[in-house]
Amino acid sequence: QVQLVESRGGLVQAGGSLRLSCAASPRTFSMYAMGWFRQAPGKEREFVAAISWTGGSIYHADSVKGRFTISRDNAENTVYLQMNSLKPEDTAVYYCAAVGTYNPNYYYYQSGAYDCWGQGTQVTVSS
Predict the structure, then answer these.
(1) What gap in Å lies between CA 49 and CA 63, rounded to an integer?
(2) Which end of the chain lies in a sparser environment, N or C, as judged by fewer CB atoms within 10 Å?
């Protein structure tokens, strides 16, 4: 069974940086794309960023564009989310997600496109 293991989040001051990682196991899992979503208290889960298997296609939500960067290391089946210039409104539980089987009914920014999820990691940004 595929598992996505996320790194620990943490508490950071506004303006600071944090890098999240997500490793997929076992490594034989064939992934089409990976993404990051987040969910703040009382809010719906929202798209943050996505990256294709080759890394040739990258997408970021407008709310994080220019501050967050998604990347991946295919040799390690790991995806990263570098978060800079963090704001209090970035506080949320961040989830890593992977596409095991491509579903043409969903776009990359929709959670339904992803069929494997990590356990989530808390990121708290203090003002």
Answers:
(1) 10
(2) N
